Amino acid sequence: MKRIIFIIFWAMSSSIWAQEKETAKDTNTLLYYLKNGKWQGHIRNYLMATDNGRKELTDYYANALGIDIHYETTHWKGFTAGFTTSFVYNTASSDLGKPDSLTQQFNRYEIGLFDLAKPYQALIGRIDELYLSYAWDKSKLVFGKQKLITPWVNPQDGRMRPNFQEGIYLDWQDVKNLRVEMAWLYRFLVRSTEKWLSIANSIGQYPSGVTPDGVRSGYSKNLSSAGLGIVGVTYTISPLIKTQLWNYFTENIFNTTFWQIETEFSLQKESSRKLLLGLQLHYQTALSNGGNSDPNLAYIPKNQRNWALSSRVGWKNENSQITFNYTRIGNLGRFLLPREWGRDPYYTFLPRERNEGFGDVNAFMMQYSQNISKIKTKIELAYGHYILPDARNTSLNKYAFPSYNQINANIVHQFRGILKGLQGQFLYVYKGAVGELYEDPRLEFNKVNMHLYNLIFNYNF
């Protein structure tokens, strides 16, 4: 915490001192570039509540208030430097460190607003970004702590503070219609945690489920990896068709490949009505011994491989869109990718649940969205039906999760006038049981037959 405060004080005092001492002629000094840097701020308040349905099961609530400050210098011969620091405060909550009396399981959702490892810590401070960037033409090279957005490694910013990564990242766009992204990452700052961790130790910060044999997974802090290599190529075939290919190489643990192609085209000439089509293919293989020679301590079983397919068809016009989505995950094993690194990129993904960690999955999802431009409001309604392996089939079900259906209703409003910069959001989620629960409340608690309420306000300045 002291280190964070020192960095803020140093940057602000340097900028102020520069303003006092700088002259119009001194445009090629460090003080000039500090003075002309850009500050940005963001305040977020998040109220979340879980209703677990049955009276015997514990309900939860929490309200978090956070602020983050970002500073970036102006350009000097293509170079810029920047940092972001953030604070989150628990203004009010139920007891997030006390297990449910019936299941002896802990809170799942509200604790994610704070630090998973420290449920009773009221104030959390982090250094999110600290980087040096060099840009040329349409490309850039970034070294340090930064935020990447890729299909499988992404911010997953559905709580207070998102994921950040540390390493070197290249974004090359010097050829028309072609974008090449490459990264070598060696540390992660995982959402809902406070400390930067190695790639290996970042895996297992969230609940780790069981092994294919039904033994509690022990890979947390027991994996070995030199880092994560990412290569992504995006090519715009035509104004109507775009494709991308990504590969994620987690040294000594696993390799995952992702391919996607999407198109949209007008149904009639000069019409805003468009047909949407999308297709994804995923393929994964274990590397070496999956991170540890002991199968109970490995992240992925040795020699395991699996595949997934996701598709979309939809229709949109200027203000509305409807999509029908389907995902099939193969039955060769469990398709894995650390939940700590980002959310699923499947077309059937809905906020507050995932299909990572399962095999032999059939998922269906329909979503409708409507923009009401006159009042700057967007409404989204979605229904998903997710057919998973039996909750007791540990070879294909890592988290003992029953098949379920899910309803999401989301409203986002942009305020105007004196409140310009303020955004309000309300997200309601219901998940109902479809699969067998075996009269076991552990298969129900925080998973199905539950309601989740989210009220969020963001203010950018």
From TrEMBL:
UniProt keyword list: Signal, Transport
The family this protein is said to belong to: Belongs to the outer membrane porin (Opr) (TC 1.B.25) family.
Keyword Transport on entry: yes
Protein name: Outer membrane porin, OprD family
GO CC terms: membrane
Signal sequence extent: 1-18
Keyword Transmembrane helix: no
Entry-linked InterPro entries: OM_porin_bac (IPR005318), Porin_dom_sf (IPR023614)
Cited Gene3D superfamilies: Porin
A Pfam family annotated for this UniProt entry: OprD
